[in-house]
Design goal:
single chain; 381 residues; alpha+beta; Butyryl-Coa Dehydrogenase, subunit A, domain 1; Butyryl-CoA Dehydrogenase, subunit A, domain 2; Butyryl-CoA Dehydrogenase, subunit A, domain 3; 3 domains; 8-stranded mixed β-sheet; globular
Amino acid sequence: MSTSTVASLGAAPIDWLARAEALTPLLADNAVRHDADDSFVADNYARLKGEGFFGAHVPAELGGGGADYAQLAAVIRRLGSCCGSTALSYSMHSHLVAVAAWRWRNQNAPTDGLLKRVAAEDLVLVSSGGTDWLRSAGSAAKVEGGFRITARKIFSSGCLAGDLLMTSAVFDDPEAGPTVLHFAVPFAAEGVSIRETWRVMGMRGTGSHDVELNEVFVPDAAISGRRPQGRWHPLFHAISVLAFPLIYSAYVGVAEGARAKALEVARRRPADEGLVQLVGEMENAFFAAEGALERMVRLAETAMPGPETTSLAMIGRTHVAEAAIRTVELAMEVAGGAAFHRDLGIERAFRDVQGARFHPLQQKPQLRYTGRLALGLDIDG
């Protein structure tokens, strides 16, 4: 049953976390195969789509599933505990929906058309990745009625199942200078192709291939935003506070799954003092990851985007990454030699959680941003 059907019938609110829980055995089984053969988690995506997850966070008023932000984060975390790749790819779709929904509710932005389409058509949105951060990538050439876009967008998680690529490119505006244009491109559009480049250490099932745009026409009416290249903009403060709690929920889920497996192994072994200490360290690390993520989620639910909120969100992102990685490292030690075997799943979690290092703002840029803000310096300096 689609989310739009549920909403139109005025049914009771869906327990999205329970719905995710019911899928976890199947998703976990599929995760092993996709990791082994470097394939996209297409069957897991199909199950999520069949259960209405891609419209879950669309407001019920717009035909969606009406899941609130904290529910969405909890769902992604639960998915991450059984399949990191499914959770991370889904978070990339989800954060695009979350930003659109927040802007519709809080800024009266005209994003309702997109949100209605996501719910009614079960659209899968694809983010063009952190490499499209403040500077963006690719070029936009002005032509009659619009622009021709030429770009190669890397880290496009879930692109093999995608309907719309939510992306940007740089237009050398003769008056304003280098200007980043934001727009959506259908994957079915002429000039759009996928280059299957994703052979990596971890998160192998995300299908984060390159998407190539070869002089793709984007009409003027499809340009949803413009901003100066390389400078902080209100849109990116909204992205910072709304996207990263969802993305990092996937990594906390990976850590949670590894911790659970390690405890299963450890409880079957003699509880010598060394093992007890290791488990205590693992619990401390996981507590830190959970606590930092909870703070990030609360910010997303209650704070207004801006430079200070971005700093707090990115501090949280750094702490979640460090603590999640440390949790899985300790899970390896707690489980001992058994963790070296792929069948247990901690080895895959160890590889998957390393991805937490690479999303913006990475630790050193985060420290610089936060330090400059605290000292009253220009964050664009």
